[in-house]
Specification:
2% of the residues lie in helices and 53% in strands. It is built from one helix and 16 strands.
Length: 188
């Protein structure tokens, strides 16, 4: 589907130079002289390489329709992750690299969104946050609670996060899946 360059938004997938690109940033520049241009930062979906392109605002670009489906995470087998489609119950195996760093927060039965193009999976999106239990945390140092310092903690999945001083071992917390940042204490 052709769209004008001014309609490009972050998250859009474009077919440019016979490759699929996901748009990271899109800004319109109005120079003092000449026509306005759209500066687009894109990442190649296959190789992961980034590039910057400039399009004239009236230039037409090819936008690709991406299919989204809800899947449930089942298990890991080495570097392969197995997911099940929620509607068809079909199982697929994907490489761990496709999920990336947030993959360390995958939990059995977790619902994820898999985006695909012509049947080829492109990305796996986890929920924004997950509840996890701390299995190891440094003890509180007297006087440390007065400042806004954080201490390291190890989660049940082996990931390391920084938590406030009052959080101890055995506590359930909420963390962001994108970067592993502490959000809050989990509600019971």
């Amino acid at each position: 589907m052709k769209i004008s360059a001014i309609q490009i938004r972050p998250g859009s997938v474009l077919d440019h130079n016979s490759k699929l690109w996901i748009v990271m940033k899109s800004e319109i520049y109005n120079p003092g002289k000449g026509a306005s241009v759209v500066q687009v930062e894109m990442r190649d979906l296959k190789s992961g390489n980034k590039t910057n392109e400039r399009f004239r605002t009236q230039e037409m670009v090819e936008r690709v329709r991406i299919d989204e489906a809800e899947f449930s995470y089942l298990f890991a087998n080495g570097d392969e992750l197995t997911f099940m489609n929620q509607e068809t119950f079909e199982q697929i195996n994907l490489p761990r690299d496709l999920v990336g760093e947030p993959g360390r927060f995958l939990q059995d039965g977790m619902n994820v969104t898999i985006e695909s193009y012509e049947g080829t999976p492109l990305s796996v999106t986890l929920p924004d946050s997950v509840d996890v239990t701390i299995v190891e945390a440094d003890p509180v140092v007297k006087g440390q609670t007065a400042s806004s310092s954080y201490k390291p903690a190890v989660l049940e999945n082996g990931a390391r996060v920084m938590v406030p001083p009052h959080i101890g071992s055995g506590t359930r917390i909420v963390v962001k899946t994108a970067d592993g940042a502490y959000v809050e204490r989990a509600k019971d």
